[in-house]
Amino acid sequence: MLVSEGEAHFFTDPRYTGEAATVPAKSHVAKGLLILGVASTIKRKRLRKVGFEPSWMDMDQHGRLEKALDRRASLHPVASLIEEQRAVKSPEEIAIIRRSVQANSEAYARTLKRIRAGLKELEIAAELEFQMKVLGSEKPAFETIVAVGDHSALPHAHPTQRRLEKNELLLIDMGATLDGYTSDMTRVAFTGKPPKRVRELYRAVLEAQLAGLDAVRPGVSVKQVDAAAREVLKRHNLEKEFMHSTGHGLGLEIHETPKIGKKEKTKLRAGMVITIEPGAYLPGFGGVRIEDTALVTERGCEVLTPTPKELVNL
């Protein structure tokens, strides 16, 4: 995309000629490198200063564009400009995210009925993603996390051939993409009657998650939200077992502005859609993370995720 005052230009190749006709911009179907088509339009429009998104343009594209412009225009990195504009969602976007959240939670509920000891992490992940698609999702919002036993102590565990056994933790972190918009949720179950250590760990993380949600309202700094969750875990002597941020924005991407971390200064605004997901991870034992997708409202916070947060006994 090349956006100038009063108009926008969309560049693609002949494979997407049909789709390009639906884009609300002037479409250019280039037979060669797209970046050279961009350069041609910049020169024709006599643009002199061009901003680019440094997170999305690689060095090869930048070099080709700079060479093709031949000093007729200068390139300037403009970080986070688009991301900041996307942070607050429109009512139409919020409506789609609600449906994405609903599909995600329903896929989880359907899969939970099919989970039993002996299934592999990969098999459970496949069922979750199948159910998402049955419910209208184009794809998972990210690689579905299914982690059993001590594997759940890895915050970003990848599903493996490992089988779910009796008396084990099961952590599921999943998200759907519906009409282009993402959702995110984490829940934890136990195959059998959970022992005291598991129950205490779960209660501590749930308390932290509820504290984080309770702190969400317009005008509040995201680091205050992070601190609210982190303080609870500190009281339970679990602060060192929580090694990631408390949450993040989501929308067209699974990770968007704002990041809800201890050093972030962004203030929440009504219309932002975020996650609240504290966790505690004990190497050799297991981990618990509880995550909801939530909407920042004029008066506080609306949790969009309908899935109950009780520790499920399978």
Number of helices: 8
Class from secondary-structure proportions: alpha+beta
Give the percentage of residues in beta strands: 15-25%
Report the CATH topology name of the largest domain. Creatine Amidinohydrolase
Sheet of most strands: 4 strands, mixed
Tell the overall outline.
globular
Radius of gyration: 22 Å
Cα separation of the termini:
49 Å
Give the overall average pLDDT. 97
CATH-level-2 architecture of the largest domain: Alpha-Beta Complex
Number of domain modules: 2
Q: In percent, how helical is the residue content?
A: 25-40%
Oligomer category = single chain
Series of secondary-structure elements, N-terminal to C-terminal: EEHEHEHEHHHEEEEEEHHEEEEEEEE
Low-pLDDT residue intervals, each spanning 5 or more residues: none
Give a short summary of the structure.
By secondary structure, the chain is an alpha+beta fold. It is 32% helix and 24% strand.
Provide structural commentary.
With about 325 residues, the chain is an alpha+beta fold. The protein folds into two domains: about 80 residues, 3-Layer(aba) Sandwich (Creatine Amidinohydrolase, Chain A, domain 1); about 230 residues, Alpha-Beta Complex (Creatine Amidinohydrolase). The chain has eight helices and 19 strands. It has a four-stranded mixed β-sheet, with helices on one face. Helix 7 runs antiparallel to helix 8. About 40% of the residues are buried.
